[in-house]
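pasting input
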Amino acid sequence: MALTQEDILAELAEIVEEVAGVDKDEVQLDKSFTGDLDVDSLTMVEVVVAAEEKFGVKIPDDAVKDLSTVGDAVGYIQKHQD
Amino acid sequence: MAVIREKQGAAHTRIMGVGGYVPSRVVTNDEVITWIDSSDEWIRTRSGIAERRWGTPEETVLEMSVQSAGKALAAAGISGDQLGAIIVSTVSHFHQTPALACLVADRLGTNGAAYDISAGCAGFCYGVAQASDMVKAGSAEYVLVIGVERLSDLTDIHDRGTAFIFGDGAGAVVIGPSDTPGIGPVVWGAEGDKYDTITQTFAWNDKPEAEDGSDEVRGPFLRMEGQAVFRWASYQMAEVSLKALAEAGITAGDLDAFIPHQANNRITDRLVKVLGLPEEVPVARTIAEYGNNSAATIPLAMERMLADGTAPSGGLALLIGFGAGLVYAAQVVALP
């Protein structure tokens, strides 16, 4: 069964907290990874790889460039999940 | 019909000696941030680099090669004329032909086979694999492998993504016969579908127009897609490292040193984590002072770790190189 936006956000927030050390409550749809959450480009790669494993989606390098906000990432995962 | 007679070399091989050459000019992060919009803290947290070494005009790829080779030969107890082959890995010898290795051979006093290889930051491990196989096949008794770069000549000092990364230097090893196994099976390969992730900005025979409309064309320089390379190096190279251990029939706990290519400390961190490397196993971190000097990073780190007692002579070390191509190679070796 496909995950809802809320489910994906909750899981993604846990990943961001674990990988980047950001409080998961800070991880909201409108927050930008680099600007608001201080997730640098290399840490972003670690977040993406963890998300790929968690959600079973492929997030290629070209797509990573377009994921500037948490909402972008949640939307991408929601669209591409099985 | 006559049958061709084959040759048989040594049953086993080892690294007999290592030597390095680090150029004299120290380029600090404070100097780098006069060229790019960055900070010492930003560079350190993204890469682990505090300073790098750049060669003076006199510290050419040839001079650095000869200096490092002299030390490696002395450590191995071998003279130049005993070398049956010289393999030089470099991307910064700016003559397409002839090979830098031929000049090195001449300076060292040998007429043994001499050639360059282009395998980017994996070049040293490629060379070690070739050299070991040559000694086993009987093609040469002693082989010199050199990794040498002047990446400062290929660095765009105004590119925020790469200006702080690259350095210059040389490292060499002598490989020869051994009574016991000293060089494990190589795990290597190429992923040409990622050819463009690390490349030069234009080909030598291209004449691009200057960006500002002037006659001056800058470059070519090294260009890199940081995120893509980071992902490949941090995750896929972890699998290659594990395969190299398995091929050698050892586990991470058997290692006395881990010497990965010095591309970025955060790649090293990730590899250490996936390998499950015990905390007491020393890990090469020479990038902090030398930057990334491509094919030279592994032998330079090896020399340094042996010299300062971090790693024991005769101990087992996992080497892994990875870079432009994209190409990679890893093997377990006994330290000289």
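fyi Chain B has a mean pLDDT of 95.
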